[in-house]
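Much of what follows relies on a compact textual record of a protein's fold. An example makes this concrete, so a full record is given next.
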Amino acid sequence: MTLIKFIHREDFGHEYIVQIINTGKHMPKPFKNYSLIQVSLSWNDFPGWPYIKISSGTGSLINVMAWVYKLGFDFSIIDRTWNWHEE
């Protein structure tokens, strides 16, 4: 279990992620790979149309995603941990 985890990804732009109270793959099955709060701020190389998506269910309590031009923002409460194969 990790209290606070900071991640920087670069894939067609920069993405900065903060995960708070992040359980790992070594926890019992119902609590495996979950985070209490996850926040992501990204700047993409390619612009997109503005949109906002608010969802709940399928592994998360609440998830908010917003995108304006090249700026993206994601916020999740009690959600599956965003996981990328770290090199």
